[in-house]
């Protein structure tokens, strides 16, 4: 590829020339920052579960600031995972990244491609991170054996079910295999003539590519490598064919939306739902019936992909800030904080020790559903950590939708999407090399 | 010129006797069509209000019925505790009113030039104004972010204001209204020795008040509800605006917190609704067919 | 041409430029500069977050021709615009005419039709996700009551976009209604009175008096409505994220996806520029056809 580097200096000059009169008008802007004892950190985070989470995070930050002299953290709510990533990347582009941020784990290669992440392997090794963190969770922030963040709020999809509906249909346990899933979904579907009264199963739309990766893993395939996706493998095609079978059998909705699917479950329009563990608290509290939680059924094995993400630390900042940022990240993921965070949200605590806390043990007695996702995590891995993952996700979602709508056969859809996405990944990588 | 019309509003006495019942019928007929239509339009609002008074479990419970069991006003204080809504409210007011004030000045001047003056390059310049409405906003976000940063305005209130001070949209809207004002009026004023500025102020502006109010309402609504741009250019809670608080309740991976989202919506919309009800009365009363001969 | 006339023209010209100056300063910084940059970006490989950019020439534009999704998105946008704009303007015009009177309760009607404009799109989108729910949503319940078949709305790639169109009519009719109401206020009522006395029926009054008289505003509303509608973003973003099967993906959303989600600023810029050329052509066409028919009261 022939590529010439464009004249950046001139661009910069032009921009600063334009801005100079404005800047000089602003008092204080040109005064150099004084050396200060207090290290100020910005931490950008998304709100994945609604409402009070923001209050909880603010409370945690206030706690941290009160107990740590010399460090002051400013917590910045940055919207959804997507918004957060965009805000951080925009800030990176102008050379002023926040000190830390909390993105989805799939973005690991994206940030590494921008050379934005501080390698924290050594600090982690001299600490108890490698001993106490649950392995599968830590792995979501690992690339080429190096650690680039501390897992903070991992989640996996789980199978939620309506216990009342199960009782009515005389089903006493959740399905464990794909075949049982199909049978159960059929048994739970209610039709009145042509009119559908209740779906057997809905797979939460908008993130159905995430669930689909779980299906691939259940069929013995991790459908991506660091620089390509493998959706055209037979295991993946079989998984999608299975979805099509369920749709054709009339027991699974061909499409849905993320918010809509949660509503459908709460309103009794579907008896089973694939959704994030992060939704547990909301579904449990808002459903007028008892909610059951189970592993996603297996084919060859159990399997799931992890959502949620690690706290990442910016590379482009002073050593003092990096050190303070590590202190903060370490504190957010300590035993007590992780236990409290997990109980409040339904996200999984990342430390083994958190799960042994007395409050946590009590909580699990009261809400045994919470433990399911934790156990399933043993079979889980990182989610689609390829460059250009956002585009990859959208291509896959489109391929799945078109298949389930009957526009295209599973194999053709996945082969096309794979070719398209791998071409994009190659394009991004080519750029990184040049 | 207003009194010309007052007489026209009075029905002709000679013909008034016959169609009295017909008039009544027409009025009622109108209500007969408008009432169901209005109810249809209002139904989402009714749902918003009722949901804001329910408990989480009631929202989707098919058995629970339409009305909440007990009016659960506690959703409102609990919504307000999610974020500093008081500060957000003040910031929203500052941002929207400053934008509006700036826009009213820039568009009045520009629209007058386009409607009433002749100068070379008029059509080209007008197209250039419209470019602002045509170009997709997400293609200019990045550059504007960089520009604002060079100006040192990131994470300040002006960052949410300055990109919107000029309005191609408003200029176009007002130009159309100015062109509707009969030129006899300005000709007469010109003969009296008035300059352009004084004609603009004394003749044109009073006549296009309905348009100014309509534009004002639309501008306020647009910027009151803007989410993506403020989210990108602000960090501190002390300068953020209401929709960001609302986003905390809606942008949830876990499914929305419906009662509080709807309570939040009600809180965010109420000031606008109130403003609209007030202004739309003025809208009718003072400009009822201010016909001009 | 007498010298004094020339001087007056010169003065008028200077005045005009002075009046345009405040707007132009802001437009230059926050509209023209970004557009110029986006033309520059579109010829490069630009990654959001990375200050380095690489020359590509026309590659981004060639990609666009090959991009299956781009053409689908273009079709979706055209469908959305061509349905939403005529329908909501027709509704708005009828509402405006019906509500342009001193009848009892008009204030309430006006508020009832205008309030959707004020609902933040995040919230409005969420409410309609509920209304459209296939299982328990009120819209399907109503269809059943009327003896019509139930639809899957947002879950169905055939109906998702029409669902967004219906919602947009609810959301925007009030907006156009307000603008048209403002225009109706400028119409001299003696014209109506004269027509009424001549025994012109209501329908004819609408067609032959009202519409020609508010034609400048109708023209404005059509152009602005078109420009706004092809920029529809919020509902797609909140409700469907372009799905299912890309059936609700529209141009602005696609540009946002490319520029911000995929960090591909170069390609997003190419899309935006292609779009701009297309829209300029479209607007030019409208100006040459509809624009000629517009009747301005103030001009002879």
Automatic annotation (TrEMBL), chain A:
It comes from Pseudodonghicola flavimaris. Its main location: periplasm. Belongs to the bacterial solute-binding protein 1 family. InterPro entries: Bact_solute-bd_prot1, SBP, TAT_signal. It is found in: Periplasm. This is ABC transporter substrate-binding protein.
Automatic annotation (TrEMBL), chain B:
Its main location: membrane. PROSITE patterns: ABC_TM1. Residues 89-279 form the ABC transmembrane type-1 domain. It is found in: Cell membrane. InterPro entries: MetI-like (IPR000515), MetI-like_sf (IPR035906). It comes from the Bacteria. The chain crosses the membrane at residues 30-50, 88-112, 124-146, 152-172, 199-221, 261-279. It is a multi-pass membrane protein. Belongs to the binding-protein-dependent transport system permease family. PANTHER family: ABC TRANSPORTER PERMEASE PROTEIN MG189-RELATED-RELATED (PTHR43744), LACTOSE TRANSPORT SYSTEM PERMEASE PROTEIN LACG (PTHR43744:SF3). This is Carbohydrate ABC transporter permease. It comes from Pseudodonghicola flavimaris.
From TrEMBL, chain C:
It is a multi-pass membrane protein. PROSITE patterns: ABC_TM1 (PS50928). Keywords: Cell membrane, Membrane, Transmembrane, Transmembrane helix, Transport. Residues 74-288 form the ABC transmembrane type-1 domain. The chain crosses the membrane at residues 14-35, 78-100, 112-133, 159-184, 205-230, 265-290. Its main location: membrane. Belongs to the binding-protein-dependent transport system permease family. PANTHER family: ABC TRANSPORTER PERMEASE PROTEIN (PTHR30193), INNER MEMBRANE ABC TRANSPORTER PERMEASE PROTEIN YCJO (PTHR30193:SF37). This is Sugar ABC transporter permease. It comes from Pseudodonghicola flavimaris.
